[in-house]
Write a structure and sequence with these properties.
193 residues; mainly alpha; 5 helices
Length: 193
C-alpha cells in the first residue's frame, strides 16, 4: 500500500490514526518500564508479598470494561444513524469513566486505612509501586475523559455520521486501550507477588 496515494482526507485520517498509535506505543513502553521495575523490586528482602489489592480496584475494573462496551454501542448507534442513542451511550461511558476514577481513589483510601502509604516510614516498596502505577493510569483515564468529552460535544453537534466517524474512532481506540491496560495492570499486580 502506497501511503502517499489517496485523497487529502484519506491521508489526514491515516496520519491521525498513526499519531494515536505512536502515543499508545509510548504509553505501553512507560508502563512496561514500571511493571519491569516492580518485578525487579519484588526480589528485595523488604518486599511484602502477602498484601491484597483493595476491593475497590476490582470493582473499578468491572466498570472500565463496561465502559468499553458502552463506547462500542455509541459507535454502533451512529453507524445505524441513531444519534440520540449514541449520545446516551457516550454519556453512560462518561459516567462509568468517572466512577472508575472515584473507585480508584476509594482503593487508595482502603490502602491508607490498612496502613500502607506511598512514602514515609510506614510505606513499603510494593505498595509504592501500586500507588504509582494506579495513579499514572488515572492520569491517562483523565486524558481519556477529556477526549470523550470532545467526542460527546462533537456528537451533540451532529458531526458524526455513518460515513464520518474518525473522531469517535480515535477516542474509542484510546479508551479501549486504557481499558485493556488497566485489566493487564490489575492482573499483573494480582498475580506477581
Amino acid at each position: 500500500m502506497d501511503l502517499t496515494q489517496g485523497t487529502i482526507e484519506e491521508k489526514n485520517r491515516r496520519a491521525k490514526k498513526m499519531m494515536l498509535w505512536f502515543g499508545i506505543v509510548s504509553l505501553i513502553m512507560g508502563f512496561a518500564g514500571w511493571t519491569s521495575a516492580y518485578v525487579v523490586s519484588s526480589k528485595r528482602e523488604d518486599w511484602l508479598d502477602n498484601i491484597a489489592l483493595p476491593k475497590a480496584f476490582f470493582i473499578s475494573t468491572v466498570l472500565i470494561v463496561l465502559s468499553s462496551f458502552t463506547y462500542i454501542m455509541a459507535k454502533k448507534a451512529v453507524q445505524g444513524n441513531q444519534q440520540k442513542k449514541s449520545g446516551n451511550w457516550l454519556l453512560s461511558t462518561l459516567i462509568l469513566g468517572i466512577a472508575f476514577i472515584v473507585l480508584q481513589f476509594i482503593g487508595f483510601s482502603q490502602m491508607l486505612d490498612s496502613g500502607y502509604y506511598f512514602t514515609g516510614p510506614t510505606s513499603n516498596i510494593k505498595m509504592s509501586y501500586v500507588f504509582l502505577i494506579a495513579f499514572v493510569h488515572i492520569l491517562h483515564v483523565v486524558a481519556g475523559l477529556i477526549s470523550l468529552l470532545v467526542v460527546i460535544v462533537q456528537q451533540h453537534k451532529g458531526r458524526y455520521t455513518p460515513k464520518n466517524l474518525l473522531g469517535m474512532e480515535l477516542g474509542a481506540t484510546f479508551w479501549h486501550f486504557l481499558d485493556i491496560l488497566w485489566v493487564y495492570l490489575i492482573l499483573f499486580m494480582f498475580f506477581v507477588k
